C-alpha cells in the first residue's frame, strides 16, 4: 500500500514525528523510511533538495506527488486515505474547524514552550545569556502551557486535544508535549496536560494499549515468556530483586541523568543548586556502583543474567556516558556499560542520532 512512499526525517524533530504518527494511524507503516542526520547536514543533500528545495525535514513523496511541511503531509494522508485507519479529521464542519485550529495552534507549543527555553540555552553563548531573558522565556513557556491546560480542563478527563477522539490536532500537538516531557519538564503544574500525555498510546499490540516503559516491558515478558531472552526469573527472591532494580532505576534518571542535566543546565544555574545536583548525582551512582561491586565483574544489574532490570537501567547510564560524564570514579559501572553496550538488542535499538554524531561534553564539568 505504501511501498511507493518515502519520508525523509530527522531524529528528535517534532514536525517529522507528526508525519510518522499520521502514517502509522492511517495504516501506512510499510513506507520507505529515510533517517537523515541534521548534524551531518544531510537535510541539505541533493537527495533531499530534489524533494524539498528548502532542505528541510520532513520531506515526503508518494509516487509522483511531493508534499512538504508536516501539517500539509498529514492533511494529504488524511484526504488520500480517508477510508482507512484512524479518521483524523471529522466530517462535522464545526468540529473540523476546531481540530484544524488546534492543529495550527500547536505550533505555539513548539515555539513558546518546547523550544523557547531550549533554543535560548543552546543557541546563545553563555556569556550572552541574561537572567532577565531566561525569566522571560520561562514566563512565555508557562503562559502557553496554561492555555492548553485550560483547553483540556474544559473538555474533561480522558479527552484528546479537540474532543473525545484522537484527531489531527493530537498528531500535531503531541510531539511537542512529548519533547517537554523528554527534556525533564515538571508537568505537576499542568495535571490535565500530564493526563493527556499518558492517554496517547506509547505501545499498541493488536487491541492492547500499554503506556509507561516498565509496563510495556512486563507486558512483553509475560506475553512472550517462551521466546527470546528470559527477562524475569522464576525464582521469587530473584524475581523480586529484578523488579526492585527495575523500579529503582528511575532514580538514575531523576538524580543522575535528566534530573541533573535538564533541570540544572537548561532552567537554572545558581552555584548552590549546581552543588546540590552534583551531590545527588554522585550519591545515586555510588549506590549502583555498590550493587555491581557486590555482584562482581561480568555481572548484570541483578545478577549473572541480563534481565528486565538491565532493560530499565542501562538507557539512563548510557545517557550520562553520551553527555560526557567521567565514569572513572565508578569502575564497576564503567565495566557494566561496556558489557551491555555490545549486546545485539542494545546495538539494534541504539538511538539513530547517536550513531552518526560524537558524544557531548555537557557533563564533563562534574
What is the molecular shape?
globular
N-to-C SSE series?
EHEHEEHHHHHHEEHHHHHHHH
Mean pLDDT across the residues is 86
Structural class: alpha+beta
User: What's the total count of β strands?
Assistant: 6
**Radius of gyration using CA atoms only:** 22 Å
Distance between the termini: 51 Å
Protein name: Glutathione S-transferase A-like isoform X6
Domain GST C-terminal: 92-231, 235-362
Pfam family, one: GST_N_2
InterPro entries: Glutathione-S-Trfase_C-like, Glutathione-S-Trfase_C_sf, Glutathione_S-Trfase, Glutathione_S-Trfase_N, GST_C, Thioredoxin-like_sf
Description:
This is Glutathione S-transferase A-like isoform X6. Residues 92-231, 235-362 form the GST C-terminal domain. Residues 3-85, 114-228 form the GST N-terminal domain. With 366 residues, the protein is α+β, with helices and mostly antiparallel strands. 57% of the residues lie in helices and 7% in strands. The chain is built from 16 helices and six strands. The chain has helices spanning 14-25, 46-49, 70-80, 93-105, 107-123, 131-155, 168-182, 191-199, 213-223, 236-248, 250-266, 271-295, 308-322, 331-340, 344-349, 352-356; strands at 5-10, 32-36, 59-62, 65-68, 203-205, 208-210. Strands 2-1-3-4 form a four-stranded mixed sheet, with helices on one face. Helix 1 crosses helix 7, helix 5 (107-123) packs parallel to helix 7 and helix 11 (250-266) packs antiparallel against helix 12. The longest helix has 25 residues, at 131-155. The radius of gyration is 22 Å and the shape is globular. Mean pLDDT is 86; it is low at 262-268.
Amino acid at each position: 500500500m505504501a511501498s511507493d512512499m518515502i519520508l525523509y526525517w530527522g531524529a528528535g524533530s517534532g514536525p517529522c514525528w507528526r508525519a510518522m504518527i499520521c502514517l502509522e494511524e492511517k495504516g501506512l507503516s510499510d513506507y520507505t523510511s529515510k533517517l537523515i542526520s541534521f548534524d551531518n547536514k544531510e537535510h541539505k543533500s541533493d537527495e533531499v533538495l530534489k524533494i524539498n528545495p528548502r532542505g528541510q525535514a520532513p520531506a515526503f513523496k508518494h509516487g509522483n506527488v511531493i508534499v512538504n511541511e508536516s501539517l500539509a503531509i498529514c492533511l494529504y494522508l488524511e484526504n488520500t486515505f480517508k477510508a482507512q485507519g484512524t479518521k483524523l479529521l471529522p466530517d462535522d464542519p464545526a468540529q473540523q474547524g476546531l481540530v484544524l485550529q488546534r492543529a495550527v495552534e500547536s505550533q505555539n507549543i513548539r515555539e513558546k514552550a518546547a523550544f523557547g527555553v531550549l533554543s535560548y540555552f543552546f543557541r546563545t553563548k553563555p556569556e550572552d545569556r541574561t537572567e532577565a531573558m531566561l525569566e522571560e522565556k520561562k514566563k512565555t513557556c508557562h503562559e502557553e502551557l496554561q492555555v492548553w491546560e485550560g483547553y483540556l480542563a474544559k473538555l474533561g478527563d480522558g479527552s484528546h486535544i479537540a474532543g473525545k477522539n484522537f484527531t489531527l490536532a493530537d498528531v500535531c500537538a503531541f510531539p511537542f508535549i512529548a519533547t517537554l516531557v523528554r527534556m525533564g519538564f515538571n508537568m505537576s503544574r499542568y495535571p490535565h496536560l500530564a493526563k493527556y500525555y499518558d492517554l496517547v498510546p506509547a505501545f499498541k499490540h493488536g487491541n492492547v494499549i500499554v503506556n509507561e516503559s516498565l509496563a510495556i516491558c512486563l507486558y512483553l515478558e509475560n506475553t512472550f515468556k517462551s521466546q527470546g531472552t528470559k527477562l524475569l526469573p522464576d525464582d521469587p527472591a530473584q524475581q523480586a530483586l529484578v523488579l526492585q532494580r527495575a523500579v529503582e532505576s528511575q532514580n538514575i534518571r531523576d538524580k543522575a541523568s535528566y534530573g541533573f542535566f535538564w533541570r540544572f543546565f537548561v532552567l537554572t544555574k545558581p552555584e548552590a543548586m549546581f552543588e546540590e545536583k552534583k551531590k545527588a548525582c554522585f550519591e545515586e551512582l555510588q549506590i549502583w556502583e555498590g550493587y555491581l561491586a557486590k555482584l562482581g565483574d561480568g555481572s548484570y544489574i541483578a545478577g549473572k543474567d541480563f534481565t528486565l532490570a538491565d532493560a530499565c537501567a542501562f538507557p539512563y547510564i548510557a545517557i550520562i556516558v553520551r553527555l560526557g560524564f567521567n565514569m572513572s570514579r565508578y569502575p564497576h559501572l564503567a565495566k557494566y556499560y561496556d558489557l551491555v553496550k555490545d549486546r545485539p538488542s542494545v546495538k539494534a535499538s541504539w538511538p539513530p542520532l547517536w550513531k552518526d554524531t560524537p558524544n557531548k561534553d555537557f557533563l564533563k564539568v562534574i
